[in-house]
């Protein structure tokens, strides 16, 4: 809307002199405000081209006032939109802390972030176009003020100066638009083509505007004092427009900071996504380990069940006499600990029966260390293994004593101890 208004004013400045030179000037009734300010007895003189141009500049000043009001409203809407954007960014930050789902949700949130980045880029382009429009309107208003200040000079000289200034204004506007095209990444080309199309459509409206300007030409002399006041008001408006441009630049800088914060948030989301992927990988590994443990536990349970069935089939045994692995079930230990000891006892016995005595002794030692206050069966079998090794008779006697320390009534350990002491007795007498 602002760009359309600027183009309309440019067309008025371009086509108004030709219309004023060719068409007859029509007198219009004076406005009530002007009648109140001008003397009633002074007759209205025939307007010339200069008065018509001054009237056009007055109309431009009124339009600039409307443009400034519209700009204030749009800036208010922009501030609300930025607050809304800040609140949405806060919501996004809160939601990022709650991420514990799958990577699909994270990808959706990254898509939202990209969409908001595109929205911010669009807002930046809009701010750039507004800044260009403000600069162009300020330049036009400055040239118009200069033309009004020079109206006391000679009519012919003022017409020549006005033509020269209009050409300079057109050159400056053209140069400014070229610079804005480069800085706006050539995004304004499509806009300008649309504006040219609207410009062609606007030519039809110029006739009505010219009629209105001719109708108000007769009232120009009565409003010279009002023009002076409006010149001062125009200077104030120019200052306000400069302040507005400065504020827009500050808002653009704040938007850039928000873009940087959003980029940092996107990086954080990517890191969280990677962490989630690593956690999923670790979870799969742990699940695989758990499955293996369950499988091993199933095997051990099957072994224990087999032992329990074997115990049921065998006659009742005395824990003070039996050397079977099933006797471990009489220990006052947790069920899982007893199952582990039975498995270790069976593994060690397989090596013992295969004549791998050294390996069997190591396994019996580990089984005893797993329950040193209870497992006298492992101590007994460790003593038997040491007895079969050369030079380990003293170790065998030590293991027999360990078994008897736990259960002094354990007869196999008593027999092993007696046998070992008999073998060592002759050496001691010598």
List the helices and strands and how they pair.
Blueprint: H1 2-22, H2 32-37, H3 49-97, H4 103-149, H5 155-183, H6 188-215, H7 224-313, H8 335-353, H9 357-370, H10 376-387, H11 393-406, H12 411-429
Structural features, described:
With 430 residues, the chain is an all-alpha fold. The protein has two domains: 2-283, no CATH class; 325-429, Serine Threonine Protein Phosphatase 5, Tetratricopeptide repeat. Helix content is 81%, strand content 0%. α10 packs antiparallel against α11 (393-406). The longest helix is centred in the middle third of the chain and has 90 residues, at 224-313. It starts with a helix and ends with a helix. Mean pLDDT is 77; it is low at 18-44.
The dominant shape is rod-shaped
Order of helices and strands: HHHHHHHHHHHH
Radius of gyration equals 51 Å
N-C termini distance: 123 Å
Number of helices: 12
Content-based structural category? mainly alpha
The main pleated sheet reads as: none
Which parts are unreliable, with pLDDT below 50 for 5 consecutive residues or more?
A: 18-44
Please give a handful of descriptors for the protein shown.
81% helix; Serine Threonine Protein Phosphatase 5, Tetratricopeptide repeat; 2 domains; 430 residues
In short:
With 430 residues, this protein is an all-alpha fold.
